[in-house]
Amino acid sequence: MLDSPRSADTLRPQAGAAPAASAAPSPAAGAAPRGSVFEASVAAGPLRLRIDSPALRHAPDAAIALQRCEALLEALEGWMKQPLHWRWTEIPIAPAPRGSQARAQWRLDEGSDGVSLQGSLELPWALLRALPAPEGVLAAWLQWPALPARLLLSCPRLSGEELERLEPGGALLLPESFNTSWTGLLRAASEPGGGVPVRLDAPLAPRLAAGEAPAASADSSSLRCVRPEPVEGPVGQPGARASTSSARTEPSIEAFTADGLQACEVRLDLPRALPAERLAGWPAGAVLDGAGPGATLWLRAQGRRPALCLARGRLMPWGSGWVLAVEALGESDDATLPVC
Fold this sequence. Notes:
The chain folds into 2 domains: 142 residues, no CATH class; 181 residues, no CATH class. 14% of the residues lie in helices and 30% in strands. The chain has 7 helices and 21 strands. Strands 10, 11, 12, 13, 14, 15, 16, 17, 19, 20 and 21 form an 11-stranded antiparallel beta sheet that branches. The longest helix has 11 residues.
C-alpha cells in the first residue's frame, strides 16, 4: 500500500493496472524529481524501501514503481505478519536513531518485461530480532551484509581507585563468569544499544542463545552488573588471587553517580565481521567462530564523550570463572594485542 505524501488519499497499486492519476494530486509542471524511496511505520520504528530506478516526479509514478515490486511487498507483509502502508518520501518522516537500523540489499528476478528490480531495505534491529529468519523466495531476494560486531561479556562499574590499579600483568575478575548461565550481548558495532543474547558457558566459542527472547531494547545494563575486584599480583604468578566476595547487584544509576563509579564494558575480540543473520540471532545455537581470546575494557560513552579503551589483554580461565588478563593499557603498538 502506498500513501500519497501530498494527501490523505491512499494509492493501492493493482496488478496489471496503473493507479488513477486522480488518486493523488500531481505537483506543478517542472517539479524536481525525487528518489524512489518509500517509508512505512511499525511499532518498532520506520522501514525504508529504496528502489533503484530513475528519479520520480509524480505520485502516480511512485505508485507504478512500487507496483513493480508488489511480490516483494507481499512477501514482507507475510514475513512481518502485518500490513505495511508505504509512503513516498525523500526526507524520513520519523528519523531512526543512528545505528539502530539494519540494511539488506534485495533483487527480484526478471519480470515479463525482461527487467530485474533491485534496491535496499532498512528496518530496525529490534524488529529484525523479533522475526524468524525469512524463508523461501524472500530469503533468496534479501542479501544481508557482514558487519563489524561487538560482544559484551561484562559491564562492571569501577571506582577511580580501581581504575588506577589496572596495570599490565594484573587482571580484572569477571564475576558473571562464575554463573553457570553466563550470558553476553551481541550487536552491530554501530548500534547504540540492544542486541541478541549469547551463551558464554564456553566463552571462546560463544553461541547464540536458543529459546530466549532477543534483548531488543536492552543495553549493556541488561547484563548482570557487579563490582569486581581486580586480581592482586600478576596472573599465573605466586601471590595472585581473585575474590568475588565484593560482587554485588548493581545499585541505581544515581547511586553510582554519587559514588563516582564509572560505567565500563568488557568486550570479547571479534576479529571478523559477522553476517547480519548472526546479529539478528539466526539460527539459534550457532557458534561465533574466531571469537577471542583477545578482550578489552572500555569506559562507556556518555553524552558527547565517546567510549574510551582503558585496557587490552586476553580472556583467561580463573578457577571456575574467567578474568581479563591485562597486557596493555589504552593504546599500544604491540600488533599481537587486540585492537581497541
